[in-house]
Inverse folding.
C-alpha cells in the first residue's frame, strides 16, 4: 500500500528539517519573514556596522562581484574602508552564510548575496562573466549524492564553463589571430 499522506509533524519526511534550514537565508525566506540586513547581521552574531550594511547592499545589487569591485562600491557609500577591513568583512559575512563565495578556477573569488538555494553558475572562459542557473531538478538534489563517503555535506556546486553570447559574437569577427595553445607565459 502506498502511503500518500504527507504529514509534516513527527514521522514526516526525513528531510523536512534539512529543507527548512536550506531555505533559511534565501531571498524567499527574506521575503517571507521581512528580515532586513541589520537583523540578519545581529542574528548571525555580527555587529551591525555601516561597511557591512553597505557591503550586503553592494553585493546584492551587483552580479557576482569580485573583492575589488565590492571595495569600490562600499567606499562610494561609506567613505574610506581599508582593503584589509573589506576582506575581513567579506570573510565574516561568508562564514555566517550571508554571502556566498564562488571561486571559478583561474579567476578572483566572486561574491553573491543569493545564498542558501544551492543554485549553480555559468562562467564565461573568455571574459569571466558569471551567470546564475537554477537547480533544474528543484530542491538541491545535488545535496544527496549517490555516496557521501562519510562526509556531512552542506553544499554542492556545479560550474558550467563555456563562452557567453557577447564573447561568441566578438570571436566571430575574423580579425582575431589564432592564439597557439600550450604556449607558456612570456
Ligand atoms: Zn564572455
Ligand atoms: Zn549565483
Amino acid at each position: 500500500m502506498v502511503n500518500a499522506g504527507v504529514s509534516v509533524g513527527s514521522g514526516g519526511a526525513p528531510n523536512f528539517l534539512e529543507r527548512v534550514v536550506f531555505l533559511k537565508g534565501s531571498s524567499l525566506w527574506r521575503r517571507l519573514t521581512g528580515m532586513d540586513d541589520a537583523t540578519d547581521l545581529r542574528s548571525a552574531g555580527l555587529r551591525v556596522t555601516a561597511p557591512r550594511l553597505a557591503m550586503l547592499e553592494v553585493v546584492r545589487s551587483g552580479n557576482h562581484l569580485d573583492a575589488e569591485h565590492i571595495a569600490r562600491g562600499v567606499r562610494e557609500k561609506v567613505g574610506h574602508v581599508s582593503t584589509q577591513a573589506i576582506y575581513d568583512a567579506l570573510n565574516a559575512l561568508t562564514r555566517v552564510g550571508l554571502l556566498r563565495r564562488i571561486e571559478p578556477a583561474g579567476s578572483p573569488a566572486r561574491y553573491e548575496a543569493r545564498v542558501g538555494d544551492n543554485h549553480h553558475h555559468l562562467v564565461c572562459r573568455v571574459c569571466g562573466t558569471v551567470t546564475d542557473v537554477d537547480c533544474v531538478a528543484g530542491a538541491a538534489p545535488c545535496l544527496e549524492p549517490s555516496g557521501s563517503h562519510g562526509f556531512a555535506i552542506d553544499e554542492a556546486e556545479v560550474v558550467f564553463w563555456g563562452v557567453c553570447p557577447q564573447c561568441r559574437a566578438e570571436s566571430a569577427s575574423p580579425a582575431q589571430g589564432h592564439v597557439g595553445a600550450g604556449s607558456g607565459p612570456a
Remarks:
- The chain has seven helices and six strands.
- The first strand starts at residue 65 and ends at 66.
- The CA atoms of residues 30 and 36 lie 8 Å apart.
- Residues 64, 112, 114, 119, 121, 132 surround zinc ion (ligand 2) (CB under 6 Å).
